[in-house]
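Module 6 notes. Inverse folding takes a fixed backbone as the condition and produces residue identities as the prediction. Think of it as a translation problem where the source language is geometry and the target language is the twenty amino acids. Below is one complete input and output pair. Work through it position by position during the lab.
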């Protein structure tokens, strides 16, 4: 099977983002208010010329896990990162940088990234906890509707649907305003598929705040999601695929989290 671009999911979702919500210039509000959508560097992203840093918080049971994932495309020798003025210990893996953080939902934080002496700094807020309501089963003959609750509006949401097939996958994402609390995916996205065709389905919603500093995206996110296994051997097959260096699978930004786990 042909090797796949590991940034496909990130770029496809950011493409949706660029078409439907405003982006930030260096002198704009860090959470994306009062800016011009034409500022969004779409072509740079599609050509893999866009660096990014994602700070994400995920919920596991009654606990929260915070981590940072970053890609820097510019040639460089030294990278340092401070969160709230404290040095962050970075690890690297195939061009990505990772770190575990101590952040919580709705917490604001400052960042200062220095690459070979050049600094980018700003502040963001982790979105509030998102609680999702999902169907108990994924019905291939019906539209798929999900809803969610959260205590405050972020800059925006991305509702995402990812379907893993034997030799391919389907990625669908829709950018929504920060006031939305539900979304429906049309069954036409997966029409013609049978249960035998599908390994795995991942559906969810990502809450996000973001800014752009010196041509680099900085994003703070929180997501809620639901997994549906169609193939009992999916986990085993996916492990083999990742070992062979094919594209890691997983929701945005969890595909980066998968790379982090592989590096440990």
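Target side of the pair, the amino acids:
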């Amino acid at each position: 099977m042909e090797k796949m671009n590991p940034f496909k999911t990130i770029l496809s979702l950011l493409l949706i983002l660029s078409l439907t919500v405003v982006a930030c210039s260096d002198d704009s509000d860090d959470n994306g208010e009062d800016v011009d959508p034409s500022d969004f560097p779409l072509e740079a992203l599609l050509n893999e010329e866009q660096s990014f840093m994602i700070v994400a918080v995920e919920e596991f049971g009654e606990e929260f896990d915070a981590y940072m994932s970053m890609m820097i495309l510019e040639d460089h020798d030294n990278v340092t990162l401070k969160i709230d003025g404290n040095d962050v210990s970075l690890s690297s893996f195939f061009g990505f940088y990772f770190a575990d953080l101590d952040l919580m939902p709705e917490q604001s934080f400052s960042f200062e990234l220095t690459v070979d002496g050049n600094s980018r700094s700003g502040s963001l807020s982790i979105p509030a906890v998102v609680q999702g309501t999902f169907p108990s089963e994924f019905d291939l003959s019906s539209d798929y509707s999900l809803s969610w609750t959260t205590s405050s509006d972020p800059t925006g949401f991305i509702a995402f649907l990812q379907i893993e097939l034997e030799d391919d996958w389907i990625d669908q994402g829709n950018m929504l305003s920060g006031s939305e609390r539900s979304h429906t995916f049309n069954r036409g996205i997966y029409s013609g598929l049978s249960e035998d065709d599908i390994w795995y389905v991942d559906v969810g919603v990502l809450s996000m705040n973001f800014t752009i500093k010196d041509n680099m995206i900085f994003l703070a996110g929180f997501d809620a999601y639901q997994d549906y296994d169609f193939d009992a051997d999916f986990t085993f097959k996916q492990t083999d695929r990742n070992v062979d260096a094919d594209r890691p699978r997983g929701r945005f930004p969890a595909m980066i989290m998968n790379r982090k786990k592989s590096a440990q």
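Reference fact for the lab report: The chain is about 15% helix and 45% strand.
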